[in-house]
Amino acid sequence: MAEILFFGKLSDLSDNLKAELPEDVSTIADLVEWLSRQNEALGEGLKSAGTRYVLNQTMVDETAEIINSDEIAFMSPLSGG
Amino acid sequence: MSKHNNISILSVSFDPELHLKSFRERMRESGAVVSFTGCVRSAAKDGDVETLFLQHYPGFTEETIDTYVADAVTRWDLEGIEIIHRVGELRPTEPIVFVATASKHRRDAFEAADYLMDMLKSRAPFWKKEIRGGKSVWIEPRDQDYSDADRWKRES
């Protein structure tokens, strides 16, 4: 199971998820498409400017490869402390 | 991290004076101690904020702050750093952030505290929602916060 986390504005659009990734989801970009098909509003949020991706606590870009044991976080633009 | 550097993310209210007191006791051999406390403002420009809600990414947020602490240690001659940051629900006037630095001489402690606050205000992974008049709005750093952080860019 992959753990999918949402922070900031994105956390209003979806709860954190535990999901079995389908076979055709192998990158962050694929995951965005897959999530968008299930939740249109979340899809728009994920594709909006400034969304950042964190894979197993390290910042990555959308081409990063993902597997079922990963923790993947989608972060809205930071607010700062 | 040095044994005198601490980062805490708290979900309950804290007393900055108590933390300063224990930091001073721990750093009693330092010649200079600087501290900063940031609180939730009681009135914002478009209506009073009733509640502030702060979110962080456990683990990742602490790691990110730790990189700024490590950077501060290379820039200034520091003997100790204490950072406390609130998350969860906060009310106006409640302390939200506390930064204390200790060094041999004052300039290092002043500048490092200033630097760490600028990093916390615009680069640390926190998300903030203001609730006013029953409506909630996610907020982003002000332009001033970004330009404050840019002051510390090093010539490459």
Question: TL;DR of this structure?
Answer:
Chain A is an alpha+beta fold and about 80 residues long. Helices cover about 30% and strands about 25% of the residues of chain A.
What's the topology here?
The complex is a heterodimer of chains A (about 80) and B (about 160).
Chain A: E1 2-7, H1 10-13, E2 17-19, H2 28-38, H3 40-47, E3 52-55, E4 58-60, E5 71-75
Parallel strand pairs in A: 1-5
Antiparallel strand pairs in A: 1-2, 3-4, 3-5
Chain B: E1 5-10, H1 16-26, E2 32-39, E3 51-56, H2 60-75, E4 78-86, E5 88-90, E6 95-103, H3 106-122, E7 126-132, E8 135-139, H4 143-150
Key attributes of the depicted protein:
heterodimer, A: 81 residues, alpha+beta, 5-stranded mixed beta sheet, 5 strands, 28% helix, B: 156 residues, 4-stranded mixed beta sheet, 4-stranded antiparallel beta sheet, 4 helices, 8 strands, globular
The percentage of residues in β strands of chain B lies in: 25-35%
Shape of chain B: globular
Rg of chain A: 12 Å
Radius of gyration of chain B: 16 Å
The largest sheet of chain B, given as strand count, sense and whether it forms a barrel, is:
4 strands, mixed
Order of helices and strands of chain A: EHEHHEEE
Q: Kindly report the spatial arrangement of strands forming the biggest sheet of chain A.
A: 2-1-5-3-4
Mean pLDDT of chain A: 95
Q: Structural class, judged by helices and strands of chain B? A: alpha+beta
Termini separation of chain A comes to 32 Å
Derived from helix and strand composition plus strand pairing, the structural class of chain A reads alpha+beta
Task: Explain this structure.
The complex is a heterodimer of chains A (81) and B (156). In chain A, 28% of the residues lie in helices and 26% in strands. Chain A has helices spanning 10-13, 28-38, 40-47; strands spanning 2-7, 17-19, 52-55, 58-60, 71-75. Chain A has a five-stranded mixed sheet. In chain A, a hairpin with a 2-residue loop joins strand 3 and strand 4 (58-60). The model of chain A has no long low-confidence stretch (mean pLDDT 95). In chain B, 33% of the residues lie in helices and 34% in strands. Chain B contains four helices and eight strands, in the order βαββαβββαββα. Chain B has a four-stranded mixed sheet, sandwiched between helices. A four-stranded antiparallel sheet of chain B has the order 5-3-7-8, with no helix packed on it. In chain B, strand 7 (126-132) and strand 8 (135-139) form a beta hairpin. The longest helix of chain B has 17 residues, at 106-122. The two termini of chain B are 26 Å apart. The model of chain B has no long low-confidence stretch (mean pLDDT 91). The A-B interface holds A 5, 7-9, 11-12, 54, 57, 73, 75-81 and B 38, 54-55, 57, 59-60, 63, 85, 96-97, 120-128, 138-141, 145.
